[in-house]
Amino acid sequence: MTLSRLAMMSLGFVLAATPAALAQADKIVAKVNGIAITERDVALATEDLGERLAQVPEERKRDEVVNYLVDLKLGAKAATDAKVADGPDFAARLAYNRDKVLLDEYLQREAKKAATPEAAKKLFDDTVKALPPEEEIHARHILVEDEAQAKTATERVKKGEDFAKVAAELSKDPGSGKEGGDLGWFSKDRMVPEFAEAAFKLQKGQISDPVKSQFGWHVIKLEDRRTKPAPDFAAVKPQIDQYLERKAQQDIVLALREKAKVERLDQPAAATPAPAAEPKKR
């Protein structure tokens, strides 16, 4: 079940918070054969259609949703007139969907209680403390096709030519070449082994001998090194909130299961183990 769907299921409760919001939610935007379509219907249908609206231009989305609701109301009325609701499976389908909506709404309400700002900050702080320190380096490189070109580049920069200028002139790396070979900050596992081993052995300001990898030949310059900083809390808070909500939902369901008596009548009862035989008397 998606959090967006759960959030939309609680829309009515949120909008009901004030008379003005309630009036806006119940505002009639269209009628089809006298049947009203409200802003609340538009909001729910917009969420339900989801990806179907992704390719629709923003200025047309509302019309698409209202047209969908017109078809929905017409189809539902036709189904009612055809007594579809009297069919043997309809009541069961309706009950199933009612249970699902109730569960979604309940989990949404309870999970929101777990994703408090205090809980999010505590989880962030605890996670950061538990992370082992990881070294990062800031490096530049010049990528060329063969060893001879790499040796030429190495000789030029070790004689004092500006590394960034030589990289911009010679490097075949489409990502960093125009940036003077700048690779930014990275950890050892971010690079192919041959490159990483050579780069992390360098001292600040040092330039490597030519290094071969699957991409070609590299000349590497180490700009700086540091311990990888913790991520910014504000940047990762949405993911933390999502984790807390999902975990809370899982915990709620597991707790309900533990308290329940579940009987599987579609499976044979587990065989009762035979009592252990008493040892024979001598």
TrEMBL record:
For this UniProt entry, the molecular function terms from Gene Ontology, in alphabetical order, are: peptidyl-prolyl cis-trans isomerase activity
Keywords, sorted A to Z: Isomerase, Rotamase, Signal
Q: Which residues form the PpiC domain?
A: 134-224
Residues of the signal sequence?
1-23
Matches recorded under PROSITE patterns: PPIC_PPIASE_1, PPIC_PPIASE_2
Q: Which InterPro entries match?
A: PPIase_dom_sf, PPIase_PpiC, PPIase_PpiC_CS, PrsA_foldase, Trigger_fact/SurA_dom_sf
What is the protein name given in its UniProt record?
Answer: Parvulin-like PPIase
- Species of provenance: Bosea vaviloviae
